[in-house]
Specification:
This protein has 391 residues and is an alpha+beta fold. The chain has helices spanning 2-16, 104-112, 148-156, 160-165, 182-185, 228-244, 277-284, 333-338; strands at 22-29, 32-40, 56-62, 73-77, 84-87, 90-93, 118-121, 168-170, 204-208, 211-216, 252-257, 263-266, 272-275, 294-297, 303-308, 313-317, 340-341, 344-350, 360-366, 373-379, 384-390. The N and C termini lie far apart (77 Å).
């Protein structure tokens, strides 16, 4: 009895220790569904977080028997992290501790009430890159850098209710390229990298019932003109896609990638231009326009739906958390439709981004005809800001 009494304080102390953090989610890739878990074995308290992945226990296990045929409601989010960036062009800081300024947790909260069958994140999960000592941003966050602690704060912790709501497809963004936060993305991808980092993952073909989702890793393609060598690489990517889907029996094919082929942005003169010209040129050398129904991307920090000749419809969803791009030029729809932009005639255009606080997400809902899908943009309160049938 005396021995038990002597051990009692240690037993109480052991029971009182905080349980290890654990994050669980289900992902969907071309290999099917995978159950994922991360257990944090040791907490890192450093403000500058460039390490920490060695203190994680990760488990991936294939899920058998789970089918995609019943997926009829898909939620799209993109560009979700809290922006902390310093450059020669100026500093850009969001207050990551203020839920009205960095809203990703609120987006996830609302998404969890939608009861989706699938969530697709179109890339750029991590934005807490830089915050120098003595800068105001030190009041806005507890961590910066490319390590686990920043990834946890920017994505894993606020995504928990989303993880519980539905399986996820994870698209790689340019913030997860080999110069930036690729180590955190390796926790999400189901592909096995032979090297520490690879510039581009192989294209995946994910069958979701009678819908085929072609997931292209465009994280490394430049928004500026590419070298001849890189031009040839992207041309080959699209030629391979064309060959792979040549005999598909899917009722619809979507191209999902981070960088849009024909998204609209303002140049340094305040004029609208399209990006990404490199992807545009490579795509145009194929017959994919006749095969792909819809292109889905992020990268631009607002929402857009663009119709143009010789390309599929382009949907952009990049308004789910990080600082939004100036939407002023996007509000003049008539001006956009009256002239060619970088040689492209835009036949229809819409954006629900009206201000610097037009955060939200998009929903794709399968129509009653079993073939087409309805697109809905929603704001932070779950209000519909735009809805249309995509025929």
């Amino acid at each position: 009895m005396r021995k038990i009494m002597l051990l009692l304080p240690f037993l109480v102390l052991a029971c009182a220790q905080t349980p290890k953090k654990e994050y669980k989610w289900v992902s969907l890739s071309e290999n099917g569904f995978t159950s994922n878990s991360i257990t944090v074995l040791k907490e890192n308290k450093d403000f500058q977080s460039d390490k920490g992945f060695e203190n994680l226990k990760t488990i991936k296990q294939a899920l058998r028997g789970k089918k995609t045929a019943d997926i009829k409601k898909i939620i799209l989010v993109g560009d979700t992290g809290c922006r902390l960036k310093e450059s020669s062009f100026g500093d850009s800081y969001q207050n990551c501790k203020h839920p009205h300024e960095w809203v990703y947790a609120s987006v996830i909260e609302k998404i969890s009430t939608e009861k989706p069958d699938l969530i697709i994140h179109v890339g750029d999960y991590h934005y807490r890159e830089q915050c120098s000592e003595g800068k105001i941003c030190r009041q806005y966050t507890d961590t910066v850098g490319y390590g686990w602690r920043s990834w946890e704060a920017d994505f894993f912790a606020p995504s928990q209710k989303g993880f519980q709501s539905a399986p996820w497809i994870f698209v790689r963004g340019n913030h997860e390229d080999c110069k930036r936060a690729f180590e955190g993305y390796k926790l999400l991808t189901e592909q096995q990298w032979k090297n520490n980092c690879i510039p581009a993952e192989k294209t995946e073909y994910i069958q979701v019932g009678d819908l085929l989702i072609v997931q292209l890793d465009s994280s490394s393609v430049s928004d500026k003109p590419e070298t001849p060598e890189n031009e040839a690489f992207w041309e080959q990517q699209f030629k391979d896609i064309e060959k792979s889907i040549q005999f598909t029996n899917a009722k619809q094919v979507w191209l999902v990638t981070h960088k849009p082929l024909i998204g609209l942005v303002e140049n340094s003169k305040g004029e609208l231009q399209t990006i990404n010209m490199n992807l545009q040129k490579a795509f145009a050398k194929t017959g994919l326009n006749k095969k792909i129904k819809l292109m889905i991307a992020g990268h631009i920090h607002n929402t857009q739906l663009i119709n143009t000749k010789n390309f599929p419809k382009q949907l952009v969803v990049g308004n789910s958390g990080t600082s939004l791009d100036d939407p002023s030029e996007l509000q003049n729809r008539n001006k956009i439709l009256k002239k060619k932009i970088n040689g492209l005639k835009i036949t229809d255009f819409f954006s629900d981004t009206k201000s610097g606080h037009s955060f939200g997400y998009a929903i794709m809902t399968k129509s009653s005809d079993g073939i087409n899908w309805e697109l809905t943009f929603k704001d932070l309160n779950g209000n519909i800001t735009y809805s249309t049938q995509l025929h």
